[in-house]
């Protein structure tokens, strides 16, 4: 009977070890997917370890922050640097969104 008992305990510890490994793998994968999407990798590793495969699914479903859709990318063609605070603002902006200083839109500058 003693052998049976230890065998069962061994089986349980074996299984829990695998479950632990799988949970950590989920955490690692979730953190990898999250960091690919410009999210907090460490936070998602913790979520992955706590929630396992569910957190992994959540990170896969996360909207990608690193590639914003519908939002204009800041490029030299569409943005100029504010002379006051050196932050990029849109060409046609009349007021800097960062420091609030008044700006002259690029199209008006060209006319002068
Ligand atoms: Zn500014």
Question: What do you see in this structure?
Answer:
This protein has 112 residues and is mostly helical. It folds into two domains: 2-61, no CATH class; 79-111, no CATH class. It is built from four helices and two strands, in the order H-H-H-E-E-H. It has helices spanning 2-36, 41-51, 53-61, 106-111; strands at 79-81, 88-90. Strands 1-2 form a two-stranded antiparallel ribbon. The mean pLDDT is 83. Bound molecules: zinc ion (ZN). The site of zinc ion has 8 residues, from loops.
Nutshell version of this structure?
The protein has helices at 2-36, 41-51, 53-61, 106-111, and strands at residues 79-81, 88-90.
For the structure shown, list the relevant keywords.
5% strand, rod-shaped, 2 domains, two-stranded antiparallel sheet, 112 residues, mainly alpha, binds zinc ion, single chain
């Amino acid at each position: 009977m003693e052998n049976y008992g230890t065998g069962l305990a061994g089986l349980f510890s074996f299984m829990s070890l695998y479950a632990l490994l799988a949970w950590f793998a989920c955490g690692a994968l979730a953190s990898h997917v999250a960091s690919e999407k410009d999210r907090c990798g460490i936070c998602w590793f913790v979520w992955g370890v706590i929630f396992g495969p569910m957190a992994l699914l959540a990170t896969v479903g996360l909207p990608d922050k690193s590639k914003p859709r519908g939002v204009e990318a800041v490029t030299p063609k569409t943005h100029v640097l504010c002379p006051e605070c050196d932050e990029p603002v849109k060409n046609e902006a009349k007021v800097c969104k960062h420091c609030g200083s008044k700006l002259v839109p690029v199209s008006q500058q060209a006319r002068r």
